[in-house]
Amino acid sequence: MRDIYRSLLTTLAVLLTLWLILGFWPLSVGSRIALSLLVILVCGVMLWREHRISQPRGPALIDRPDESLPPEDFQGAVILVCGDNSALFAESAQHIETRQSWYLRVNDAEQLPLLTRHLSQVRPALVSQLSVLLAVLPERHTSDVDFTRTFRGWQRAVVQSRAASGRFLPFWIVVWLSPPPACADAEPIWFSTASQRAELRVHQPGQGNLSLTDWIRETPAGGQFSRLSQGLWLDSGLAWMNCAVNSLLSGSPAERHVLKPCMQGLCMVPVAGLAGNLWQQHITTVTALPPEVTENTGPLPLPEALLPALPRRRGISRRMLFWRNAGLLAGIFLLLAMLASYFNNQRLVRNVSDHLALYYHLEGHPAEPKLRAQQRLRADSALLDEWQRRGEPVRYRLGLYQGMHLVSVVEGAVNDWAPPLPSPSSPLPVTKTMVQEPKNIRLDSMSLFDSGQSTLKAGSTKMLVHSLLDIKAKPGWLIVVSGHTDNTGNPKLNQTLSLKRAEAVRDWMRDTGDVPESCFAVQGYGESRPIVTNDTPEGRALNRRVEISLVAQANACQIPGKPSASSQDDDAS
């Protein structure tokens, strides 16, 4: 379960990628299938590798049960205790939990980078709360050479732990020393400094955090001798730390940065030591009087008083990390989807603009090329109209759709030209032909449609049947249906409304009389052709109309299987 969030992120990334490929990017069907299969294959490989990585990392950490690790929601400091840590833990204890921190015992230098890597994998939220504590007990060492060799080994382990965790881990050193004989029964006193140049701070139960000057100034009555002894002992302890510890904190520039302690501490508390230890040797060189070895005592106090001075940040749990990465993936997906939608809309505008440019470039002589261009625009108009009614595809959405601005332009271009009448091969004698031109039929739009609508009202069928008795489909005649509005409202919307009302009347005539589509021509003029002034309500009512007329045009309204007839012969008397 530790890698479930990583697998979920991988699956989410794959799903969003497939959505981009299949729903947004303008690709061919073959390209979409190939890319989708490639993404699925890569996803399978990544999930397999994550499963392999989730297996145990080596035998060095098998004896580290998960119960000894802090929970992922732990808010305190997580401290890896190295060096002379046996005096801080019980014999078999692997960790100590307090109110402020969680101490993890590191048995040897080789385990430090392994434990750091293990924590970064199973408790990634706690990495920012990690620090490395090097415990130093000079009374547990008798040889300077052995102490230096051990210290160097822990130095290398600290440098390797940074590479294992992927970030800089705070490194601090604490020395435990037995107090002077005159203060053997006193409470443990903690001294700390953030750097060698910073002022020492004193941490004593009941007195809080004081500077060394204030601590000396607040000496209780009768305690001058005890305080003097502690001060001299402190100077000796600091001198030994500079000589035996700080002098070893060297290496390459990168290592010096890693090994630079963020804090150093010293605790005066009885420590069970060995005869002839390093602290006895140091005091002997100064006073020629070695201190007595303290008898065996219990575990040494933990440096709880020094924790507020540690640099630490609150970590991010795996759940929070998952949601943060999921939000990042969603943001990237939205950005790429908007980019793809922008390209799709630009492609749509460019294609329709090319069709319009070609249509207007052709003059209509001959008529066939321009007629083909007009049919292409009709197809564009039908597609845009369908998208306007039902909604555009998802690849054009995200607030970037440009097709609505093209509808009126395309419809206006389609309706502003009709194929010209061909010149007769030989003029017909006027005396032999009498042409009867049908009269225009004018219908009141408000009797057929509701205000602002283009759908025929219920009950308008009777009016249409009565008015259109004389309008019949004949070869050589084109039924022209034109819509008109008054000047109220937006001119573009009025033009669109007039066209749609004319189309509605055309559709009714076509479906009712089984008239072929080729017999009709539909035009929408909007408010451009009023028959009376729009200054009065009566005038505006007259201008809101649908006009139907027959126009002579060769090859119009041809019935399959019959030869074309001249429009003049149809109504000749």
Structural write-up:
This protein has four domains: 4-53; 73-316, no CATH class; 338-415, no CATH class; 430-570, OmpA-like domain (60s Ribosomal Protein L30, Chain: A, 2-Layer Sandwich), CATH 3.30.1330. It has 16 helices and 13 strands. Mean pLDDT is 80; it is low at 56-62, 424-437 and 564-573. The N and C termini lie far apart (95 Å). Helix 14 links the parallel strand 11 (477-484) and strand 12 (520-526). The chain has helices at residues 4-23, 29-53, 111-122, 144-165, 212-217, 224-244, 253-259, 278-287, 318-361, 367-390, 404-415, 445-448, 460-467, 491-513, 537-543, 567-570; strands at residues 77-83, 95-97, 101-105, 130-136, 171-177, 189-193, 201-204, 208-211, 263-268, 441-444, 477-484, 520-526, 545-552. Helix content is 43%, strand content 13%. With 573 residues, the chain is of the alpha/beta class. Helix 1 (4-23) packs parallel to helix 9 (318-361) and helix 10 runs antiparallel to helix 11 (404-415). Strands 2-3-1-4-5-9-6-7-8 form a nine-stranded mixed sheet.
Quick synopsis:
43% of the residues lie in helices and 13% in strands. The chain is α/β, with parallel strands linked by helices and 573 residues long. The N and C termini lie far apart (95 Å).
List keywords for this structure.
about 575 residues; alpha/beta; 4 domains; 4-stranded mixed β-sheet; 13 strands
Question: Topology of this structure?
Answer:
Blueprint: H1 4-23, H2 29-53, E1 77-83, E2 95-97, E3 101-105, H3 111-122, E4 130-136, H4 144-165, E5 171-177, E6 189-193, E7 201-204, E8 208-211, H5 212-217, H6 224-244, H7 253-259, E9 263-268, H8 278-287, H9 318-361, H10 367-390, H11 404-415, E10 441-444, H12 445-448, H13 460-467, E11 477-484, H14 491-513, E12 520-526, H15 537-543, E13 545-552, H16 567-570
Parallel strand pairs: 1-3, 1-4, 4-5, 5-9, 11-12
Antiparallel strand pairs: 2-3, 6-7, 6-9, 7-8, 10-13, 11-13
Helix pairs in contact: 1-2, 1-9, 3-4, 9-10, 10-11
